[in-house]
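sorry for the late reply, my laptop died twice this morning and i had to redo everyting from scratch. anyway the thing you sent over, i finally got around to it. pasting the sequence first so we're on the same page, its 104 residues, then the predicted structure underneath. double check i copied it right bc i was rushing
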Amino acid sequence: MKKINLSETRKFNPLAMNSSLLHDSPYFKIINFNLSAGQIFPVHSHDIEGQLSILVIEGDGKFLGQDSEIPAQTGDMLISDISEPHGVKAVSDMRIIVTIAPPI
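ok and here's the structure:
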């Protein structure tokens, strides 16, 4: 088993999104992204099969798609295929946990 203390990864940079790799295995990858208010994790997709989840652990913002915006707040989770365009926009300082399976 592995325990991760997420409070240790609570770092914000007003100039760029901050990321911390939390777990990487042949089965899945978990990354913590911290976005300062107004920052955008650009909409993108990957040309592989698999799924991802984006869990908001702090703050408010929007889940972004190709032509959509879905409100996102602490406790909300987005699940999508990796090939589907996805991104995040922070309205307040925002922390998200992204799980990718299989890892890319």
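The mean pLDDT is 96.
thats about all i looked at so far, will dig more tmrw
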